[in-house]
């Protein structure tokens, strides 16, 4: 109702005032103005009818349903025309708003179909508006005062749960100690009841009555801290037995049952190794072959009475070790032998060796032996730093010797491979320079026949390989070191 009245009030008021101002004028003007007012009012009546069709109460969320019969609009239009006619005929009084726009019939509104205000909460009731109040008095979704007078407004459908579980004024008992409390008192009591079973605070996994928690933590809890009686360290009660079986300070009896008292576990090994008189020990000359083994207290007497025998055992051991050393040296030397057919001989401390060669006639340097191949000839180079024969005191002489080898019986004799000696310049900028000399062995020379086991096997080479003057004029010596290469080539008849 208020919405349609507010929408039409200004226009109605303007029409009333216009009628009053036109009083006393010609009928022609009056009727023309009245006709215009009737047109405007007819439009407003149409709006009013449409508004009444959608009448609703925003406060109570009511929905009014009217049938589109048009009866209400016709009655309002008729009343409006009568009001206008009366206003033009009588100019002695001013018409009121209620006389021009009478409200809709209250009986018609109260008979409108509405839904319950709690229909969004699930109430499916719908009926005439006049029955809404009676429905709300029994609607299970409508809120009512708690009968315990706790001050809460609770929907009827939830009242049972409220009275049983959430009402602060309800009377209930603690499920653990059976004491009676109000709802608020029970909430305060919860969390402090001594009869409530709770999990141990030390996380041992047991549920204990809250009132016995202190006693449990001090005597029964598997996670309570306990101190080791030997090392004074703290452990949880469930791990203390494991520690006790390994504690280094735990006292133990000697396993050899000696006279020593209890010994700490961590010191037992040292006791058995150094002190225990009952422990069976081996003789100090066990590696030499002595088989004695007995209590430590008898070891000293054994050593005194068997000194001569121990000496003999040590001599025999020394001899065996010497043989083993020679075998190892031979194996190492075999592993270091060169089987490539090329020897790169590095001669160090050149100045000292040259001085020694000048002071001692015939001083010869020999190289490590090498083979022409895996199963080939065994050779060895030699050098006279101060020269030999025609080159003595002026040149460096180099030679090659054929030594007895392991596979000489399978080789072809005499030795016929070409041999090249090369003395390298060091630090050359344009490639590796040097002095080289080569030769092809003469098969008639005794030097290249199958060698015997005599140590004085002669060599063949160049007594004037390089002069001392040339040796010092070019960078053959660097860092007091000289490099000589001896290369055997079976494919060449003439060396180049």
Automatic annotation (TrEMBL):
Its main location: cytoplasm. A zinc finger (TRAF-type) spans 135-187, 189-240, 243-300. Residues 1-44 are annotated as: Disordered. Residues 1-15, 35-44 have a biased composition (Low complexity). CDD domains: MATH_TRAF4. Residues 340-488 form the MATH domain. This is Blast:TNF receptor-associated factor 4. Keywords: Cytoplasm, Metal-binding, Receptor, Repeat, Zinc, Zinc-finger.
